[in-house]
Specification:
- There is one protein chain.
- 76% of the residues lie in helices and 5% in strands.
- The protein is built from five helices and four strands, in the order ααααββαββ.
- A four-stranded mixed sheet has the order 2-1-4-3.
- The protein binds zinc ion (ZN).
Length: 245
């Protein structure tokens, strides 16, 4: 295949633009924010679970407190009724004694319930501290996620803008390229990522291999418009003033 040296130089420019586009693509996929976001999302999930667990524990204790309070109220009401009956007149001695006995039992029961209530309320307080702490940790994790997402979006917008610029650069270069040469270039690029590379200091700009004597003499003998390929990696190799020929 033949192409004027000037056309071959433009092909190199196109290859540089495409290399830049590849780098942009790579930067987009290798953005540190992406792992950061994945980690932050996992942390948020874990913190949410911790909040739910702490809140469930608090809810259980609230129900236990309500039950104990009802029990205490019940004991108090019963004691009041007993006291009212005792205060009334004409109660048979046997019944009065039974009521006295019951009042003692109720007082003991109330004491036990109140001790239990106090103990549960203390536990509830400790659990509340845990609820507050896990909620704070969740808020921190959500903030970290939001920060990382924002930084990713800014970086993405930046890469998008750079990419748009390179695509604008690319358009005229590709449009002016002879169809056959562009087709070859694109098929090579699709296959191994690089379509064309400069020959610099006797090395292929794509695979970096140094060309041997026979390859160099073959290149030296070739007409300037001959489209050269590097046998090793297949790319179109464009001669430059720094080729070292
Ligand atoms: Zn090569």
């Amino acid at each position: 295949m033949n192409a004027e040296p000037a056309v071959q130089q433009r092909l190199l420019q196109l290859a540089e633009v495409d290399a830049e586009l590849n780098r942009i693509d790579h930067r987009r996929r290798a953005m540190p924010e992406l792992t950061e976001i994945t980690d932050a999302e996992r942390t948020v999930r874990e913190r949410k679970d911790a909040v739910v667990a702490a809140e469930t524990q608090a809810g259980d204790l609230d129900r236990e407190i309500a039950r104990l309070e009802r029990d205490v109220d019940g004991v108090r009401a019963r004691a009041k009724r007993d006291n009212d009956m005792l205060a009334g007149s004409g109660l048979p001695a046997k019944q009065a004694a039974d009521l006295q006995h019951e009042l003692e039992t109720l007082a003991r029961r109330q004491g036990v319930l109140e001790d239990e209530l106090l103990e549960v309320m203390e536990r509830r307080e400790a659990v509340q501290a845990n609820v507050d702490a896990t909620r704070t940790e969740l808020a921190t994790a959500e903030q970290a996620l939001a920060d990382a997402t924002e930084r990713r979006d800014i970086a993405l917008a930046d890469l998008d803008a750079t990419e748009a610029g390179r695509r604008r650069d690319r358009e005229p270069l590709a449009a002016e390229m002879p169809a056959e040469l562009l087709e070859l270039y694109e098929s090579l690029r699709a296959k191994n990522g690089t379509g064309a590379a400069p020959l610099r200091a006797r090395r292929c700009g794509a695979c970096r291999l140094e060309l041997d004597r026979s390859e160099l003499s073959h290149i030296k003998a070739a007409a300037p418009q001959t489209v050269l390929r590097h046998e090793e990696c297949g790319v179109i190799m464009v001669r430059t003033p720094e080729s070292g020929l």
